[in-house]
Amino acid sequence: MAGKPIPLEDTFGDILRKAMRGTHAGAAHVASAAGIDASAIASWIKDDGVPDEDQARAVARVLHLDPGKLADAALARWHPPVIALPDVRHHPQRPHPSNGYVFFIEGGRRAALVDPAGVPGNLLRVLRDGDFGLEYILVTHKHADHCDATADVASAFPAAKIVMHELDAHAIGSLASKALPVKDGDDLPFGDGVHIRMLHTPGHTDGSSSFVFRSTVFTGDTLFAASVGGAFGDASTYGDILNSVRSKIFSLPEDTVVMPGHGPPTTVALEKAHNPFFSD
Ligand SMILES: [Fe+2]
């Protein structure tokens, strides 16, 4: 059933700021290289106004973004269609602005939670209302809005296995020692003939991970509809996040549904066609 469209996570200003930071391009450089007044760039970063088509294309060329797709972002010309799947439930992680998901097989007898965060009572209600047999607690990365309820969920579901990349696992404290030691490409058994594949997708954080279940990938803050997460890694970089998306997410089948940590769902094909950080 189609619900209400979720707004895109990133504004034009967010995209501009991420690309400038990632490419170490200051406003003065972008302005002179694109032939635009520096004060306009400074305003757009703050979401005070947006460029016109030609200005957006000029900025994109300086920042190695896709000109047509960045112009679409500036002029709000694209939004993914509403996507809902029968074997994935979304819940807001209030008070955080992040997305949580439960996916399941066998009518919910086997289930996995993506990102235990927010008010624990909210999560436990989602899990109990669905009568889910929780087998996995999957954590995409170390930021609090994706993992601050890990201890509460783990104590309510002691048989559930925690899956989190070792480079980020310090964020869950002593539970880190209980997390499965996963690495890129590992398949976690999930019922008869079903697996959950863990992909190491560094860049937003060093241990950022995505999880593939059937034809859905949960990308955390690595890939959003029409944007990417900020590059906040200690060792990994803006280049790494772009490379993670290109090599690990965009190599999945085109019709793979992307369920991100923020903003609306999308698909691999739609992101290849509309995400300004990637050119064809
Ligand atoms: Fe994050």
Describe it:
By secondary structure, the chain is an alpha+beta fold. It has helices spanning 12-22, 27-34, 38-45, 53-63, 67-74, 120-129, 144-147, 150-156, 238-249, 268-274, and strands spanning 88-92, 99-105, 110-114, 134-138, 161-163, 187-189, 195-200, 209-213, 216-220, 223-224, 227-228, 257-260, 266-267. It has a six-stranded mixed sheet with strand order 6-7-8-9-12-13. Strands 1-2-3-4-5 form a five-stranded mixed sheet, with helices on one face. A two-stranded antiparallel sheet has the order 10-11. Helix 2 (27-34) crosses helix 4 (53-63) and helix 4 (53-63) packs across helix 5 (67-74). The protein is elongated and about 60 Å long. 48% of the residues are buried. The structure holds fe (ii) ion.
Supply database-style keywords:
280 residues, 10 helices, Metallo-beta-lactamase, Chain A, 2 domains, 19% strand, alpha+beta, 6-stranded mixed sheet, binds fe (ii) ion, 434 Repressor (Amino-terminal Domain)
- Kindly report the CATH topology of the largest domain: Metallo-beta-lactamase, Chain A
Largest sheet: 6 strands, mixed
* Molecules bound to protein: fe (ii) ion
Structural class computed from helices and strand pairing: alpha+beta
> What order do the helices and strands follow?
HHHHHEEEHEHHEEEEEEEHEEH
CATH class of the largest domain, please? Alpha Beta
What proportion of the residues is helical, as a percent range? 25-40%
Radius of gyration: 19 Å
What overall geometry do the principal axes of the alpha carbons give?
Answer: elongated
